[in-house]
Specification:
One of its GO terms (biological process) is L-proline catabolic process to L-glutamate. By secondary structure, the protein is an alpha/beta fold. The chain is about 50% helix and about 15% strand. An 8-stranded parallel barrel has the order 1-2-3-4-5-6-7-8, surrounded by 7 helices.
Length: about 325
């Protein structure tokens, strides 16, 4: 119920626009690294100084206009330039939908190709994030076509809650891969619904990719998963330069630093921009424990009031639909 609530909130365009108008006044600055490139790069440099790499996400939701998609591309190109000029230990994460996937496939492909080309010249990796199930095949198609054109600086994401996750992990064994549990509401026909099943599949694809794949990024805040990976890597003599742990900016800072100090490669997912609301809600949906972290690290009374009102609006909307 709680997960459905936050996914529903993340997809509410009205609330997304309202949250954007507030900027980061509600406390989201604790988990979003500013609204512009300068603020974000300051955060990246601070993390780099602590021995932590970064993957940078220019936030954006509900892009259905080509001009907006082009602006997003230009912003990402500016991030690539900033990484190169400042010699930051960072790479790019991008969402195909922000670059026009829901508008026109070929248009989106050319947009991403331009980013991949610029990033390739600057020796910067580009990760194509996975979104919901309807965008799964088009995103894999983008990855395949760019790879066929010779771009070796691209990778993508496997979401453990999909039944097909292990098959896809095997298919992309030669590609740098981020492995995650998944953060969207999906049908039981295509995705596991129970936490235990998702966790078991997550461990399954992590182990397979560590043993057979290229570089593996393991994105989790789950202590049990992290401890399992440590033991598995040690037992199978997997070198630490073959994988990294990833966590979200602003979450479990002490653990991020501790893992880096232990000698594990670590990468923080650094989102920035004014369009932070959908990202924020999906992080709450993705793992209920994130709510506790939010309460401790982010929410002030004003934030709680706004989230409460948003939740109430969503539930009232659901109830009104049922009454029709």
């Amino acid at each position: 119920m709680l997960r459905d609530l936050f996914i529903g909130l993340s997809e509410n365009q009205l609330l997304n626009r309202a949250a954007r108008n507030y900027g980061l006044q509600l406390g989201a600055q604790q988990v979003v690294a500013g609204t512009n490139i300068t603020e974000m790069m300051d955060s990246v440099k601070e993390l780099n100084q602590a021995g932590i790499a970064c993957t940078i996400d220019n936030l954006g939701e509900f892009v259905y206009d080509k001009s907006e998609a082009i602006r997003a591309k230009e912003q990402i190109l500016a991030v690539v330039k900033a990484i190169h000029e400042q010699q930051a230990d960072a790479h790019i994460s991008l969402k195909p939908s922000q670059l026009g996937l829901d508008i026109d496939y070929e248009f989106c492909r050319e947009q991403i190709k331009e980013i991949a080309e610029k990033a390739s010249r600057d020796d910067i990796f580009v990760n194509l994030d996975m979104e919901n199930y309807p965008r799964l095949e088009p995103t894999f198609r983008l990855v395949n076509e760019l790879s066929e054109e010779g771009y070796t600086n691209i990778g993508t994401v496997i979401q453990a809650y999909f039944h097909r996750a292990l098959k896809d992990t095997r298919a992309y064994r030669d590609m740098r891969m981020r492995l995650v549990k998944g953060a969207y509401k999906e049908s039981p026909a295509v995705a596991y619904q129970k936490k235990q099943e998702i966790d078991e599949n997550f461990i399954r694809i992590i182990e397979w990719h560590l043993l057979h794949g290229k570089f593996t990024s393991i994105a989790t805040h789950d202590d049990r998963i992290i401890d399992h990976v440590k033991r598995f890597a040690a037992e199978h003599d997997i070198e630490r330069d073959q994988f990294e742990f990833q966590m979200l900016y602003g979450f479990r800072k002490d653990l991020q630093l501790a893992l880096a100090k232990e000698g594990y490669r670590f990468c923080t997912y650094v989102p920035f921009g004014e369009d932070w609301y959908g990202y924020f809600m999906r992080r709450l949906a993705e793992r209920p424990q994130n709510m506790n972290l939010m309460v401790k690290q982010v929410f002030n009374k004003k934030t709680n009031t706004v989230i409460g009102l948003a939740a109430g609006a969503f539930l009232l909307g659901r109830l009104s639909k049922r009454g029709k």
